[in-house]
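Task 17 of the worksheet. Students: predict the tertiary structure of the chain below and write it out as structure tokens. Keep your answer in the requested format; marks are given for formatting as well as content.
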Amino acid sequence: MSFGFHSSHGSIKQAIDEISSSDRERKILMFAAASNRGKGFRPTFPAIHPSVTCIYATDGHGNKYKRNPQIISHSPGFATLGVAVKSACIKGGEVRKSGTSFATPVAAAIAALVLEFAIKNDMPSEVYHKGLKTKEGIEKVFGTMVTKSDDFNFIYPWELWHVKRRDTSVLDEMCKALMP
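Model answer:
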């Protein structure tokens, strides 16, 4: 979710609560932009919702975005590319944009790649559905691919998937991270 409100928004909170209820068969991972108000401010809603992974922005080298807000206490402080992201311009051509709203879809795409990799490499169904495909699970796997950058955990996928690593080794590390 590449948007934010200064306070909880009733219908959005209700939808998040419904989606994240434990009795739902199909789990949906949710990511939200922290905000671009700067270090003197807290992240906005829905990024502060406990069922949502709050995403901060960095440049491509993991250097923090100057307009990131402070890290919230229950957040691992995940950040990824969100500075000078090449984007299409409505009037044609390209433009570079920055902000947590641009980092959030990048984080969601990394999560999608993790899920697809797990399916293609036969992650046990129980581990996939009750471990990986939960907020806590994807955050544990993100934790295997971070590099510390200032106060943030820069999601650096090649930390987990480097050239000399076999798929079985990556899958083993993911499963190990998901163990209770």
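Marker's comment: The CA atoms of residues 131 and 178 lie 6 Å apart. The longest strand covers residues 53-58.
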